[in-house]
Structure formats: C-alpha cells, structure tokens
Design brief:
Layout lengths: L2 E5 L4 H12 L3 E8 L6 H12 L4 E6 L22 H4 L11 H16 L3 E3 L15 H14 L1 H4 L5 E3 L7 H10 L24 H13 L11
Parallel strand pairs: 1-2, 1-4, 2-3, 4-5
Helix pairs in contact: 1-7, 7-8
C-alpha cells in the first residue's frame, strides 16, 4: 500500500484531510505538533482522531515556538474575540504563527523520506481562513517545488507531492465532505482559547469560522461552547 504523511492538528480541516487520504487508498502516517501552543487540548483531539480514523502510525513532534513568540498562540498576546467578519478578513491576525506551516511541512518531508513515501497531505484552505499567507495555493506549490529540489528522493527522480485537498473548499463544503466520509466532528477541536475544561469559547476567529461553516452546511456543531 502506498504511504502518505498527514499533518494532523486535531481540527476539523486536518481531520477531514486524514479521512480523504485514507479514502484515496493511502496508508496514513499522522504527524502532530506540540509546539508551545496555548493549550494541549488539540493534541488530545489529534490522538483521538488518529485512532478513530485508523492511522497506521501517529507521532507527535515536540518543538517550542515560544522561543520566538510573535503570535497570540505562542506568546503573551490576547486572542482576539468577537471580531466582525469584515475585520477577520482584513490583514493577517495576531494568531498567525510565523513560518508554522513551513516548519511543519519540513518535518513531514523528513518523515516522508524515511518511510519511503512520496505524498504529504495538509488541510490548508484558501477560502474560509484567517488570512494566513502559508495557506495559499502558491505557497503549497512552492513548497512542493522545494521538496523535490532539497531531498535525496526528489533528486533521484521519485517526485514528491504535497496535497491540499481542501484548498478551494468553503468551510461548509469541508464539513459536508467530512460527513460523507463518516468523520465524527465531535472528536475535533478548533478553539484558540478554550476554558480550563477544554470547552470552546465560541468567540475567537477559529470558533466563529467553524460555527459559520456548520450553519452553512445546515447541521449542528456537535462540540460544546461556553455559555451554550
């Protein structure tokens, strides 16, 4: 069976991506990151999801991006709450983690070479997203080009591919696709600033985008939110 490394954060996009990868016939190797983010809840979600979706192997890489900070997710910076939609779409927010996807994809690339895989899957989305520059199609194409220039596998002619199957889908379309694949979205976590019990705030950009997606899909979000 062909193998693929899948970046798995514990959110609904990466979960749907893992399900798509498995449906396409790959033996899935899920890779998550404890990178110094505000909480460990998403790592627990990633572990649940990897098990539920039958990942052949799931590894958690421990790195500490708090060394640099520069983000509300890795520094003493408040997570924005209750921002209107037009504000969320204007500029790059403080929740952007500098170079995060480049770092994550570099780790995935290393594991891909070691296990003899030729494919990496990442759940980035260029439609309903928070303006992150490393979620755009041109970024994915550029990293794939780098992967084939910078690796033994690429130089020897075994072309490496970076798949972003959700890149042009709306959040509602992603949710519908996940449901078609039998994804249990109650296992996922998206909130940037949950409470001490892991309950989503419902007010950060990520929660708002998620909730809008479920409304657009015409189904109820199965996770709890504070105050609801």
């Amino acid at each position: 069976m062909k193998r693929a490394v899948v970046l798995l954060s514990g959110g609904l996009d990466s979960t749907t991506t893992l399900a798509i990868c498995a449906r396409e016939g790959f033996e899935t190797y899920a890779l998550s990151f404890a990178y110094g983010q505000r909480h460990k809840i998403e790592m627990a979600a990633a572990r649940r999801i990897a098990t539920a979706l039958g990942a052949h192997e799931h590894r958690v890489a421990e790195i500490d991006l708090r060394l640099f900070g520069g983000s509300a997710l890795t520094d003493e910076v408040a997570v924005p709450k209750a921002r209107p939609e037009d504000e969320m779409k204007a500029g790059i927010p403080v929740t952007y983690v500098p170079a995060r996807n480049t770092i994550f994809l570099a780790y995935a690339l290393a594991w891909t070479e070691v296990i003899g895989a030729r494919d990496i899957f990442i759940g980035v989305n260029a439609i309903d997203y928070s303006g992150y520059p490393d979620c755009r199609p041109e970024y994915i194409a550029a990293f794939e080009n780098l992967a084939n220039l910078a690796t033994k596998a690429g130089v020897e002619g075994a072309r490496l591919r970076v798949h972003a199957p959700l890149i042009s889908l709306s959040k509602a379309e992603i949710i519908r696709r996940g449901m078609e694949l039998g994804v249990d979205f109650s296992l996922t976590h998206s909130c940037y600033d949950p409470d001490s019990n892991g309950i989503a705030c419902g007010q950060c950009d990520s929660c708002q985008i998620r909730l809008q997606g479920f409304r657009g899909a015409g189904v109820r979000d199965p996770i709890p939110y504070t105050g609801k």
